[in-house]
Amino acid sequence: MSRKSTALKESLLLIFLCLLTFPRNGFALGQAQYVQGTYTSGGFTIVQGKMAAAVYVDDHDYAGVVRAVHDLEADIARVTGCTPAIVHDEKGLGGNAIIAGTIGKSRLVDRLIREGKLDVTGIAGKWESFLI
């Protein structure tokens, strides 16, 4: 084996080993972290004890949004063992609720915008945008 070939293999091995040592979220640097394993003051609790926050989706919203809510329900159940209720009427919401909806397709989202409780200027008119 030539010296160049050996040096190249050693360099590739070194690069590979360096990549393995990155923290698992190393490539997400600078992005906000939304999910934590422990409660922090001012945080939103998806599941507390054996109770999951309800998930609201308007039954007149796009089929893809309704499907995404069902996928979220299944993911929460798989991770926590608690299945959240899917609610289509805002009267069924408790203190903690996840609201999924499309501007112009969700009565609750539109009402929150009208009442000034939800500022959507950063996402209005954009595809696949979200607000937390």
Question: Which helices and strands appear, and what pairs or packs with what?
Answer:
Layout: H1 3-21, E1 47-48, E2 51-52, E3 54-57, H2 63-80, E4 86-87, E5 97-100, H3 107-114
Parallel strand pairs: 3-4, 3-5
Antiparallel strand pairs: 1-2
- The CATH superfamily of the domain at 32-114 appears as Chitobiase/beta-hexosaminidase domain 2-like
Find the count of extended strands (DSSP E, 2+ residues).
Answer: 5
Major sheet strand order? 4-3-5
CATH topology of the domain at 32-114: Chitobiase, domain 2
CATH class of the domain at 32-114: Alpha Beta
Overall helicity: 25-40%
Kindly report the average pLDDT value: 80
Main sheet summary: 3 strands, parallel
SSE pattern, N- to C-terminal: HEEEHEEH
What is the general shape? Answer: globular
User: What is the annotated CATH architecture of the domain at 32-114?
Assistant: 2-Layer Sandwich
Low-confidence runs: 18-22
> Whole-number radius of gyration?
22 Å
**Could you give the distance between the termini?**
57 Å
**Helix/strand class:** alpha/beta
Please report the number of helical segments: 3
Q: Characteristics of this structure?
A:
132 residues; alpha/beta; Chitobiase, domain 2; three-stranded parallel sheet; two-stranded antiparallel sheet; 5 strands; 34% helix
